[in-house]
Specification:
The chain is mostly helical. Helix content is 81%, strand content 2%.
């Protein structure tokens, strides 16, 4: 029991990680409040999470805010691009749902598939921005390449990212519970799980130097 409750024990380690995740989640939400800053906030979240899964931990708030500031311009540009694409996608999907024939059903399935690819593209893009120095154009291009080149990881990332969102909207009860979970820990938990997958995806890039350069560690 003493070992279990000791500061270095498994229970305290788990509780510490949960507390850190909740802290990051709140930071992410606060920095997303103007909406236009959501891209920079997401990049900052992945900056910290990618370091945590590699045991390169530093000060959470300091690391998050530093990454937010350093990546603000490029992340915001990418976020606006993704936001515009998403708006067009939602409008087109809503129009297709009005179709009652067989073609409408086929198009809905096609658009759902495209939506899954868009979600994965966004995750790869912001994670690449968090980990590597590159231009917006190259980051988006490399993210799209990874979507198809790392298809097994892409499928898992889509399941981890989109799956919980779909579950949230199943019923009124899941929506109420989901809103609370997403606010206190949901986003950081998804980013944490995705970061474990991205760690393996980025391993060859870090070793082979396919990106321009790896970002300096945040202490």
């Amino acid at each position: 029991m003493r070992n279990l409750l000791s500061p270095e024990g498994p229970l305290m380690s788990l509780l510490t990680k949960i507390a850190y995740s909740a802290y990051l989640n709140v930071l992410w939400f606060i920095c997303c409040l103007p909406i236009v800053t959501a891209g920079a906030s997401t990049t900052a979240l992945y900056t910290v999470m990618l370091k945590r899964v590699k045991n390169e931990e530093g000060y959470i708030a300091k690391g998050f805010l530093k990454a937010f500031k350093e990546n603000f311009k490029q992340s915001t540009i990418m976020w606006i691009i993704f936001l515009l694409i998403s708006i067009v996608f939602v409008v087109d999907f809503a129009s297709i749902k009005l179709m009652s024939d067989k073609i409408g059903g086929i198009l809905q399935i096609l658009f759902l598939f495209m939506g899954a690819l868009l979600a994965a593209w966004m995750v790869y893009a912001f994670a690449l921005q968090a980990r590597f120095v590159n231009t917006v154009k190259n980051t988006l291009k490399n993210a799209m390449i990874l979507v198809f080149a790392k298809l097994p990881f892409t499928v898992l990332i889509v399941l981890l990212t989109v799956g919980p969102v779909l579950v949230t909207f199943l019923t009124v009860r899941t929506l109420v519970i989901g809103v609370m979970v997403w606010f206190f820990a949901g986003v950081s938990l998804v980013a944490w799980l995705n970061s474990y997958l991205l760690r393996f995806v980025f391993k060859k890039l870090e070793e082979g130097g396919e990106q321009e350069s790896q970002k300096e560690e945040i202490s």
